[in-house]
Amino acid sequence: MIVVIMRNIIYFFTLFFITIANASQIWQSTYYAAIPNKKTISTLYCKQHEPGTFVGNVHYELKYGVITNHHLYLNHFTFHIKIKHGIYFMHGHFIAEKNHISHDVIHYNIYKLTRNGVTRGVWYNRDCKGFYIGKLIKK
């Protein structure tokens, strides 16, 4: 029981210090290579609904949202992180809105090998799926 409590305390402080250290970092995030998730959906449709690229601070994005180069407003982010054997696994979802009319929930599963390393993974929604890459552009 004490071992479990100690592990949880160590895990909490690790995440806390990672969060503090990353407060000023600027990342470029790109959701790309969209393909259909269903037979009834076309590749063209997925390309037109791909989230695209944005640049920003993760903490700001989680709180206020962000607009991509495809003119989508991404907001209501959820973000979960687990560090296992030095690998950072992250997952969550967000809402993509266009002109405050249509919206879609996009899920993601991503990973990185180091705290400031390139982040890679996949994203998906009910119609399409694709790849993700995130790069630190300012520490």
How would you sum up this structure, described in words?
The chain is an alpha+beta fold and 139 residues long. It has one domain (25-138). The chain is 24% helix and 47% strand. Strands 1, 2, 3, 4, 5, 6, 7, 8 and 9 form a nine-stranded antiparallel sheet that branches. The longest helix is centred in the N-terminal third of the chain and has 20 residues, at 2-21. It is globular, with a radius of gyration of 16 Å. The N and C termini lie far apart (39 Å). The model is unreliable at 3-21 (pLDDT under 50).
Task: Detail the topology: elements first, then pairings.
Blueprint: H1 2-21, E1 26-36, H2 43-48, E2 52-56, H3 58-64, E3 66-67, E4 73-75, E5 80-84, E6 87-98, E7 102-112, E8 119-124, E9 128-138
Antiparallel strand pairs: 1-2, 1-9, 3-4, 4-6, 5-6, 6-7, 7-8, 8-9
Largest sheet: 9 strands, antiparallel
Query: Structurally, how many domains make up the residues?
Result: 1
Shape: globular
Which bin fits the share of residues in helices?
10-25%
- Report the C-alpha radius of gyration, rounded: 16 Å
Low-confidence stretches: 3-21
* H-E string: HEHEHEEEEEEE
| Mean pLDDT over the residues | 85
What is the strand tally?
Answer: 9
What separation lies between the terminal Cα atoms? 39 Å
* Number of contiguous helices: 3
